């Protein structure tokens, strides 16, 4: 397995100006005929090497002359032949087996339909080609089939012709926009079709077509509405219009990720298309809206302007995630949207930074590109774009975007080209800022304060620490905008003229700022203005002061997470030390914390302060383990989970009585996906959980759950009920789960929720349960959604089941991954993640996890995907 390096980039010697593909579709033997107009760019080049994997070559001809096998070189990764002139027509015929293709990359056949996935390097599993994003070509695609169920034959661009020759159905598509091979798509199968139109602001009519599993037309309406909103939003916000006559979305059950932005023909995981009140949760509705928008936004940020090479992936992904985040915040609640993004950063991206797969948002070295569709490239990439947006303001950012498109429409470019456009349009020096693209890791900003009583000022010193990561030892200080405010003792925000755009710029190892006044409480990193960790030794009274008085709801939430985290860490320290506890009072490294006292006071603030419902929801929920353990290098996962449960339960004891009252007061309305209702349902879920955890209200709350589960008209409430009894009453849980299965057992998408709930249940016999669930009629190792729902949920979220004392949970995952790797390496490579983090755990967990990685590493026939991760984890 070879490592590719970013700095080794070379321009292609040849381009392909036109690509004509003909597919004769048969499930087990599809014939692909490719006619390429090849243009030489580098006159010194005499040979072309085309990428190709798992192909059966039938014939090659150059300018109509067939080559004999000694006139080309063929190996497992490609085809090399002589082209010693400036322009030739190359004709290549290959055969592939879509039915046997369980990797779901390239052309595959499942559930009576053909479907493709080419990004990043899947096109080479369809035919020999220059499978790299800087080779843009005009595609014409002919699809031929004699299969009666293949009613729809789809590819990119516009349909030119649809006709019959004997019993062969033929469709011809032409895409006028030059594109790289990764944006190619083909779909053939029978679907129900949901249609609508969108009129662009310049008056062009675009046909919108959603291809859905038969009988599910109703469930496509939310996706269709979301698409129209996204199209309008991109015109209003960035002046960007759609550029073809038709926009197609196909939903399929077998898909490796969320969706794919193929030009004019998006392919979606049906989980991110199908929804109605009865079967989808508020979260599903939210995700559908955001992913539909994300893929649509790619039409400009990704397709019209694409990446020069795959190291530049964040050019399109970071930017498009930022755009979909802006869109979601405009469509729903800013606060909950932003908080969910920050959780992804803290719970997944910061974790990636501490493990063996650490990389900058623009990686330098890659073995398997599919391994780099990461939270770092996507979500941290979006945070880097967001910092630019903060620094340049919305107007400045728009100017930069306009210049970026003016300069690069139709090109394949780099992250540097993007930053250049931003810098030039705003006449700004972004030299230091650029380092975010090349440096990996999470900066730690330690903050200390020194009061000068005479001058009545406070000096804040920011010390930037950039811990070394698995991939980089040398680090330097980054350019970090920290949005901040300072509260005086009465809760008023003091004037701080040293702030630019409400931001403190930390750009050296030490930066100091002076603020008028003393006894100030700093509110730092409001809205998560940079992907960093702030280390300031907040006292509990300071945090409660922020929760009472900060001008920003986000800052209140952030402070509340610190209150809970402090309690969890204090309890954890007490549990793992042998010190005799005096009640809950204990001494950890930093402070003496009376956990019960803190929680009681915190509950008091929540009940008595005038806090809006949407903020309250956020303030009632505990941080995840990843957030709560911030600052602890290694943990005992079981003891930490116990500590967290203790804090959760204690909090419920302090606020639970109030919870039941709030719950009973809430009114039930017919389900609607609206900001108000989403918020109300979330609040009810929090109250329900707290009421069940509180001894006094527990029985009443459990009755309430059963009733709600039966009476509710929507999946959100029902799933919330199941989640609560999953923790607190396993008998009721089992009863409701069987009724769930009876009702929805026929529906694959809904049953993923059921598999996920079972996989995360605390049971001593969880591994035997997993075995049973794998034998369930709806489960198959070939379907990524199923594998993620069952095995993924177990490994990522079932702390007690996964981290078993003698390593049985780790071994279970190891065994499964070795089987899965043979079926679908991309999915296996995602689910191995929890095992890679062994350095973050105490013994014996660490060694037990590591031994599974060693076992995977030494097993025969390992995919490039798993090999890359396992080998990195062991060096
Ligand atoms: N661009 C695709 C992801 C492709 C993943 C390849 N392993 C979806 C997206 O980000 O929109
Ligand atoms: Zn994307």
UniProtKB/TrEMBL annotation:
Record's signal peptide: none
Residues covered by the Peptidase M1 alanyl aminopeptidase Ig-like fold domain: 441-537
Entry keyword annotation includes Nuclease: no
Domain Aminopeptidase N-like N-terminal as annotated: residue spans: 21-183
Cofactor entry: Zn(2+)
UniProt keyword list: Aminopeptidase, Hydrolase, Metal-binding, Metalloprotease, Protease, Zinc
Peptidase M1 alanyl aminopeptidase C-terminal domain: residues covered: 542-874
An MF annotation (GO) of this entry: metallopeptidase activity
UniProt domain Peptidase M1 membrane alanine aminopeptidase: residue ranges: 223-436
Record-given protein name: Aminopeptidase N
Species of origin: Agaribacter marinus
Source lineage: Bacteria, Pseudomonadati, Pseudomonadota, Gammaproteobacteria, Alteromonadales
Gene name per UniProt: pepN
